[in-house]
Write the structure tokens for this entry.
Amino acid sequence: MIRRREFITLLGGAAAAWPLAAHAQQSGRMRRIGVLVALSADDALAQARNAAFLQGLADLGWRVGRNVQIDFRWGAGDTARYPKHAAELVELAPDVILAVGASVVWPALHATRTVPVVFVQVTDPVGAGYVASLARLGGNATGFTLFEFGISAKWIEFLKLLAPSTTRAAVLLDPMVPSGLGMLGAIQSIATSLRVELTPISLRDAAEMERAVITFAGGSNGGLIVLPGAPTVRYREQIIAQAAQHRLPAIYPYRYFVAAGGLISYGPDEIEQYRQAAGYVDRILRGEKPADLPVQAPTKYELLINLKTAKALGLEVPPTLLARADEVIE
């Protein structure tokens, strides 16, 4: 994780070293990027993501204060702020907007149908209506998707392999995001064959989530499946702590959960998406249209296991699962 001071240092160091590529200087005028984020500015994960995005821009010749200006709007998890922040960014007349997370993409698209929007941290952009299809987009949006619904089935499969006694699984999800319900459906499609009963738990409110997990943990042979989404990120520390407190084996969508003490994760390198997003922003700033840039999906998903957490839960990691792991934390 990158702390605030480290992020500022990185940003300052990058600014001193950023090359001035010829194509970034083609018009000689200052370009403007708006960034709409669901998290708060002091969130360590948000800082790490932004560092990757800014470094990606730097590698392509864009230097903040020299040839590009970046305006941030931070939602801090307050969905009521998102439309207002999106409208504010549009009023600044940016050349392109980076929308971070499904919960802020619609506010951005409602605010403008002309300013290009590049999205990241999104699942099922076609089903959500952001684009017409992954290849033939239409409109003013393009970007990067993290998961397709079929991946969701892997989460319950890996959880059952690591904790074979699991017969009940609480699925933590944001009920307001359609992709979460789609993932739940994919998990349900194989849960019966694995003899696992599912219990959906809303992540819209931390206190409500905590009460629901406590109630769920009162039964035996339980486990957790944590779906991706903005609340998942905001409440990540509470989720990991609750899983440990109630001795619930849990599987997560991102590696940083395992690095912070979570049991197991299966998902893409989300930080890499921010470097890729910088590439799309660069191409748009150089004149390409978002409709000509296809939505891209990850080409690799990584499996991480925290052996220390497994030992604390009394779990024996099967050798076959260890062999499949891309990284093991001891």
Summary: The CA atoms of residues 269 and 301 lie 7 Å apart. The longest helix spans residues 44-59.
